[in-house]
Amino acid sequence: MIRVVILGSTGSIGRSALELVSRHPERFEIVALVANRRVDVLEQQVARFRPGTAILCDEAVPLPASAGGTRWASGRTAMLDVVAREDVDVVVNALVGAAGLAPTVAALEAGSRLALANKESLVAGGSIVLEAARRGGGEIVPIDSEHSAILQCLEGHGRDALHRVVLTASGGPFRGRSPRALTQVSAVDALRHPTWDMGAKITIDSATLANKALEVIEAHFLFGLSYDRIDAVVHPQSIIHSFVEFVDGSVLAQLGFPTMELPILYALNYPVRVADDALRTYDPVRASPLTFEEIDHAAFPMFGLGVEAGRRSGCAPAVYNAGNEIAVQAFLEDRIRFPDIADVVAEAIERVGVSGIHHMDDVIAADEAARVVATEVAKRLGERKGMAS
Ligand SMILES: NC(=O)c1ccc[n+]([C@@H]2O[C@H](COP(=O)([O-])OP(=O)(O)OC[C@H]3O[C@@H](n4cnc5c(N)ncnc54)[C@H](OP(=O)(O)O)[C@@H]3O)[C@@H](O)[C@H]2O)c1
Fold this sequence. Notes:
Blueprint: E1 2-7, H1 12-23, E2 28-35, H2 39-49, E3 53-56, E4 71-74, H3 76-83, E5 90-93, H4 101-109, E6 113-116, H5 119-136, E7 139-142, H6 145-154, E8 162-169, H7 187-190, H8 200-208, H9 210-223, E9 230-234, E10 240-246, E11 251-255, H10 261-269, H11 284-287, H12 301-312, H13 316-332, H14 340-352, H15 360-388
Parallel strand pairs: 1-2, 1-5, 2-3, 3-4, 5-6, 6-7, 8-9
Antiparallel strand pairs: 8-10, 10-11
Helix pairs in contact: 3-4, 4-5, 5-9, 5-13, 8-13, 9-12, 12-13, 12-14, 13-14, 13-15, 14-15
């Protein structure tokens, strides 16, 4: 039995992971489920999967009575304790945002396998995360479909055979729109993703293409590639999840209909492949045609800003990420316009500056400084939006 902890079990990735677990009861045992505040959803999951521990990170939310052998706890310390337990084989980190950094580090320091959906933790604290894995002996297996695709294409090859990767991007709901047209789009429009069904934050990140920049930085840390060797291309059908080019010029790609269940199943069982009849079989004719386009940098400046932050290294990716989290929330609450997201993040990067990262505290300080600046800029841009409407 593989003993699993799921962080963010009430979210989109967390629920998909639990569906997979329910279809393979002979392989998995749920040790603990962790959410932030949606106690009703977590209670239903606890009744169905009967984990030993259930945790709500938000201490302001009252806990239900412990029942059926499940011990309820609250707070981030309880979460960090559970990921570090010796009887855990795999920690699925499906939290959203930089809140995922501390449990990512704790799981790797404890020597566990980390099935990582929470890309923000690698982006914000890449060098700290890799150091935690080296120290503790833990390993990262990515859940993000693009990085799962790269890992699958690399099977049987040494890293020195790898020359370049090309990540694919759906282009989001606003593909083909002009910068001018994007001043008029709403959060409701942005939440209608053409190919993927995901949580709100990553859906907005897909619409701005910030998600692809976060993934470029994630690939840099996961596969040890310089930024010159990581490209991204728009592929609206979301069938090819990444290309891997080897030193001899040969290119492999991993394909499949867009569902996160496949990369989650792969990460949970890695390196073993497990059959799952519920997954949709790939059909090249129904998936046809497969098309590719350049990223439109004028319409989607968040992509270039993010890659540039990655190249600047140090705390720049943490600042980019934190500024983006604040800006996305402001856009979701209709306080700023869609193009303001990039303006908030650009000003946060400029004003916070770039310092080095030697310790987790450096990441936390950069993250906090970026949130202060981004909140102030979002407020200013929000007032301008209010006056214009
Ligand atoms: N969804 C996808 O298809 C997909 C694909 C690739 C990568 N990812 C990545 O996977 C991660 C999760 O995405 P998602 O779409 O599943 O997000 P989601 O649906 O918004 O779920 C987020 C989960 O994290 C919990 N959470 C939120 N803030 C928290 C905090 N401060 N402390 C502790 N728990 C917190 C939520 O708990 P409550 O429900 O209690 O609020 C929920 O369980 C993100 O990093 C995303 O980029 C997602």
